[in-house]
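I am writing to request your help with a piece of structural work I have in hand. I am sending you one protein, given as its amino acid sequence and as whole-number tokens for its backbone shapes. Kindly check, if you would, that the fold set down in the tokens agrees with what the sequence suggests. You will find the record immediately after this paragraph:
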Amino acid sequence: MKIKFTKKSIADLSCTTPQGRQFVRDTECRGLCIEVRSSGGKTYYVSYRDQRGNPRMHKLANALDISPQQARVLCDRTRASLAMGTDIAAQREQLRSSPTVSAFFNDTYLPYVQGYKRSWDTDVSTFKNHIAPYIGTLHMDAVKPEHIGTVLKHAWANLSDGSSNRLLILMRYMFNLAMRWRMAGVADNPTAMYKPKKLANHRERYLSEQETQVLLAAVNRSPNRMLRYIIPMLLLTGARKREVLDARWADIDRRHSFWRIPVTKSGRPRHVPLSAAALDLLDRVPRRCEWIFANPRTLKPYTSAFMSWDAARKRAGLADVRMHDLRHSFASFLVNAGCNLYEVQKILGHSSIQMTQRYSHLSQDSLLRAASHAGNVVLSVSA
């Protein structure tokens, strides 16, 4: 059926077929037709044949939203685009296949990182609280730099600079993966124009020898009897807190004096050398189960030892010392004992020497001692 589309002729159309809808063509514009439904709804379409010669229908607009003349303009533009080789069916399928940001995170990103990233649960919390509320419902191919800016605006107002940077890194990695996996419509990373903030207040806290002795004395008085082994192990190996709490007897090689940590922050195993003091400490740890520093009540690794640690450090007058600072202190012991940064990097398990550079200034005392030797030689010759 063909008629000339006017506001009146469109208004007079009604569906008379048992299928519940019928198409009527316009006599004035090639390919323009209108779908008339038994419910009373009406929608403009353009009919065409794709590159394989198959008949196609492409939706233009609801008849209530535009006039017949505007529908003709849309139809002509669409046919011109088709003539230039644009595959509007493929574009429509691309739009349909692009997941929302939340769907991509939960269904694609998360299963991928759970295979190697130990802190994936932190990503879940970050996404749920600081990303999903602002761009979670957007489709991945629809996210623009201004949307990322909205997320970061709220992060900068409510989070520390370090947390904001991690938020940006998470979003950047998500879109980099989408590009790597050639997700339809994601050709550019909308986070690219944003740079992490410089952390001017980067905190490094090192224990002196005297502070170390005071701290260990307070730890030995802790009601938590395992704390007297956990804290010295951190100081003697420079391992991360979770690595020590999850340590197993099976990973200790006494013959070669090393501790194999099977899963690290980087996802790769590493070997930590064990000094005679570390091995002596392990000899004193009660052996109750497969876990070295197990909770005596549950025989499982501690979920957290913070309460006991917090009480001990405050008792020692070192309330500003974090448990992670014991790792920094171990590095300072190595550097000031004359170890080079490459050795420190390998022992700490840093993936790059840049991460170890933070400890370079700690060797100043040893450099001054070396310079003093040159001074002694010069003075002796001058005399």
In short: Residues 2-97 form a domain with the Double Stranded RNA Binding Domain fold (CATH 3.30.160.390). The radius of gyration is 34 Å.
